[in-house]
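Our working data are protein records whose layout never changes between entries. An example says more than a description, so a record of this kind follows.
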Amino acid sequence: MEQQKLPNSTLILVFGIISIVLCCCYGIGIILGIIALVLSAKAIKLYKENPDQYSGYKNVTTGRILAIVGLALSAIWLAYVIYMYTTLGEDGMRQMSDEMMKEWGLGA
């Protein structure tokens, strides 16, 4: 019997990678990481029921690890942003942003 590819194994890997890349995008990395974890849990359950029938398990486990890393980085970034807004406020964040733009030569 020929092995089938695990459903969504490539998608899980891609979402895990993108969750790391987009970890500083205010929650997008969290959303993709959660989706990858849910899909990987289903794929792992399916694989463990009949391991001889499916291939692509390494993509699923790698995607799951990357999703966990992406979730952690996204959560840290989101906590940092919330902390900065609560301590500096919106005006303080805007002033800090303007100062950084001037320092880098990007603003007026």
